[in-house]
Amino acid sequence: MRANHAKHRLLGSIREIVFGLEDSLVSTLGTITGIAAGTQSTYIVLLSGLVLIAVEATSMSAGSYLSSKSAAEAEREIAKEEGKDAVIETTPLRAAIVMGIFYFLGGFVPLAPYFFLPVAAAVWPSVAATVVILFLVGVWSAKVTKRSVWKGGVEMVVVSIGAAILGYLIGRIAHQQFGVQAV
Question: Where are the domains of the chain?
């Protein structure tokens, strides 16, 4: 019974887990790759990455809390109008905590290489690690929802990586057009 309850809770949080990880991986990778391309400064990349992860994890948690609370209230109102009892699966606080934790964890995947390598050497390990984790998140999500794991993994990478490419291109253009230099 306990294993079934844990699986039910996991399925109830899959939206926050996948959304938190995917958004964090892509947002952080896109931002720091663009900043790395534009500044070539390890300090600026790390500072930007840490600020981004902290602010976005907090913001995403707040958004998850507020949207889950609104959805639960809407479900209660609909059930009340239909004369039924509402069954609310995810509590807003749990949704916020799950979102925040997975956003925070995901952000460190693309940022980690910059702690150990110079900017020029860290870009590709950052991209590679992010692509691998995105693929694994897609595989896991597909497995849990009983879809093709390969299709789920590839879909997650393809749909997600565009934002990271955009960040890199903006950083390169800014560097070329405006001569942005590291301080």
Answer: 2-178
